[in-house]
Amino acid sequence: MATKLSETPARSEAGNERLDRQVRIPGWKQEALSQARVGVVGDDPWLAGLVAAAAAALGINRLTVTAPELDPRLASAARGLNPGLELSFFPGFFSHTLLEDLLRGCQIIIDLGHHALATKILLTLAHRDGLPLVRGYDFEEDGVAGIRLFTYQKGREWREVLSMVPHRQLPSRYRGDPVLALVAAGLVLEETKKLLLGEKVTAELVSYTRGCVNGAGSEAFPPHSSPLSPSGGEEEKDKPFPFLHPGTEDHGGPLHRFTHHLNAKDRKLTTQNPIALVGAGALGNFVALGLAALGFSRVTVIDPDLVEITNLNRQILFWDALGRPKAHALAKKIEAWFGMTPESKIEYVTRTTDLSAYAVIFDCTDNFASRIVLSETCQKNGQVLISGGTGVAAGQVVVYNPDEAGPTPAQLLGLYDLVDRTAATVSQRERASCAYAPEPAVIMTNQIIGGLMVDAFRRLLAGEAAPNLFYDARGEKML
């Protein structure tokens, strides 16, 4: 039986202040999003929940979701972000052609599943009825983990489509990688947006892969770390990593013992080192989600600004925090959802800010001056810096590892050519700054880059190189 999570009629939100930043994008058609019905089929409650919450934030008002579970925290976020949301949830596996009727009336089908039976049924349905099918998921197999995405439309080669069929044939409970799921959800939603707005979908199969961080020689993370235990996460709060999938072993001993030398000062980077998250906006929301889902508890969120209604099309943790400081709101939401207690500071980061206590700094800021300051600070102090930047359709992750001779993010990205070095100071601008700088912004790029930033950190912890990554939604391969 379907669970109706909202009975509020769908409505056009093209003029809604909440969506102001995306309707500023040239050629944007909010009506096409708000009036569409999208079907989502999955088997991982976290991935399905991420897609539902992000779609709601984007202003897609009618969702039909079939999955064994839907993460209740993300379902609450979806309802809070979009009061006009009609979310019909059918609990169970999509495992028979009779279930095709659940998707009747959907203009697009999203397949997030990890078993072949559902994918084959959905591909047949899409081919027969001429429906576009966005197929995206995270995976771990044969020592490799990553993400795959392919958008099927009638006429595309079947050989490419069949490469997306999972090895597992029959449905079973699945808890995927919570960080790779962030990236997969963003890629899936970007393709869905393209279809609804009449844009060209990505030409090739999109793939992001790396070695499994829980493989030989690394005890950093267990396979299929899960951000949700069957009881909602309560029973596992006191464990070193509180959201391990039940039955998963901590390979090699307690996770907090894992260390890896990274710099000449012999300061060890470990899962227990203090982390500074500078910037609590859209990028900060997704980086915080990824870190919390993996169990990182020693995080300090730093941001001077307040939550505004125009943030809610992409900052999915703030629907109930309008007018509150972003740093506090983000820390409190992570505490409520994951049982952790991150610290928060309502302040700007300037050249005089003391960040020496942190082994790792995540740069989620939205201005060049702050990025220059963080680059110079980490270079001076020998700290790891993971810097993310986003635009409407592109973004990048740049990693500074002081143990290597590479450039800082400011140097690599040429920020000194854009901001006079001597003038690279962080201005004490008015609060509610977004209201005074209304630039276009959407959720998908922030999901993707935020997830890749956390995954870059995890690769460093596991002793892998963390390459700089560049994303272009309009590119042939996107990543």
Question: What would you say this structure looks like, in words?
Answer:
With 479 residues, the chain is of the alpha/beta class. The chain has two domains: 3-211, NAD(P)-binding Rossmann-like Domain (Rossmann fold); 255-472, NAD(P)-binding Rossmann-like Domain (Rossmann fold, 3-Layer(aba) Sandwich), CATH 3.40.50.720. 29% of the residues lie in helices and 18% in strands. It contains 13 helices and 17 strands. The chain has helices at residues 20-23, 30-34, 45-58, 72-81, 116-129, 158-162, 178-197, 282-294, 326-338, 368-381, 409-412, 415-418, 443-461, and strands spanning 3-4, 37-41, 62-67, 86-91, 108-111, 133-141, 144-152, 206-211, 259-261, 268-270, 275-278, 299-302, 343-345, 360-363, 384-390, 394-400, 469-472. The chain has an eight-stranded mixed sheet, sandwiched between helices. The chain has a seven-stranded mixed sheet with strand order 13-12-11-14-15-16-17, sandwiched between helices. Strands 9-10 form a two-stranded antiparallel ribbon. α3 packs parallel to α4, α3 (45-58) runs parallel beside α7 (178-197) and α8 (282-294) packs parallel to α13 (443-461). The radius of gyration is 21 Å and the shape is globular. The two termini are 39 Å apart. Residues 6-15, 215-267 and 429-435 have low confidence and may be disordered.
